[in-house]
């Protein structure tokens, strides 16, 4: 199959191609309109050991080795229940944990805490409540823990929705619609060609 055949097929079945493309793009617009936007708030913590005040490389490594422990602790039901008390929410600890993700940057002592919600202020409150709850209870988990807030979550950063990604969805929908349109066009062209062959065969026999 060469490009000239493809272009000729598209020209012959342009209406079918455009309808397929519009259906896919229209579906994406509808999806973007229906799906509730999700907002993400971000808080960051720095976690060290109280015994690591000398600042040696070994102290840094000891503190870094515990960042994974801190990461898991923030995402525990213990901390979630403490955050729930601060939020005074009807959501369960499990539901709150579903909204929270924690990441540690390799080679640093920074812990990044993300919270998602369909209301930006709620996302900010959840992120900051988890951060405060962990700081208050960190010494119960690691006796010589020294955790401080580097940055609290704020409305300025959380006010921009992170999903749905409307432009990305539109690009994907257009891409899918374009190729789906080509598939439909080629199907119609082959079906048209298969109808012509029997007619030619009948004409040949009658001569």
UniProtKB/TrEMBL annotation:
The keyword Cell membrane applies. It is a multi-pass membrane protein. Its main location: membrane. It is found in: Cell membrane. InterPro entries: Bact_polysacc_biosynth/exp, GNVR, LPS_length_determ_N. Belongs to the CpsC/CapA family. This is Polysaccharide chain length determinant N-terminal domain-containing protein. It comes from Paenibacillus lutimineralis.
């Amino acid at each position: 199959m060469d490009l000239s055949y493809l272009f000729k097929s598209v020209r012959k079945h342009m209406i079918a191609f455009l309808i397929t493309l519009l259906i896919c793009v229209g579906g994406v617009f509808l999806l973007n309109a229906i799906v509730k936007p999700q907002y993400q708030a971000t808080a960051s913590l720095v976690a060290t050991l109280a015994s690591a005040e000398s600042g040696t490389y070994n102290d840094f490594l000891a503190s870094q080795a515990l960042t994974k422990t801190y990461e898991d602790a923030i995402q525990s039901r213990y901390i979630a229940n403490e955050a729930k008390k601060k939020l005074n929410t009807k959501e369960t600890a499990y539901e709150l944990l579903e909204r929270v993700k924690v990441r540690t940057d390799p080679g640093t002592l920074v812990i990044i805490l993300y919270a998602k919600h369909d209301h930006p202020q709620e996302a900010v409150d959840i992120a900051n409540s988890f951060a405060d709850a962990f700081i208050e209870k960190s010494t119960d988990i690691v006796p010589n823990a020294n955790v401080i807030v580097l940055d609290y979550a704020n409305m300025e950063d959380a006010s921009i929705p992170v999903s749905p990604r409307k432009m990305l969805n539109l690009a994907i929908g257009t891409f899918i619609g374009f190729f789906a349109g080509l598939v439909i066009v080629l199907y119609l062209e082959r079906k048209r060609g298969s109808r012509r062959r029997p007619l030619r065969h009948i004409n040949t026999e009658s001569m």
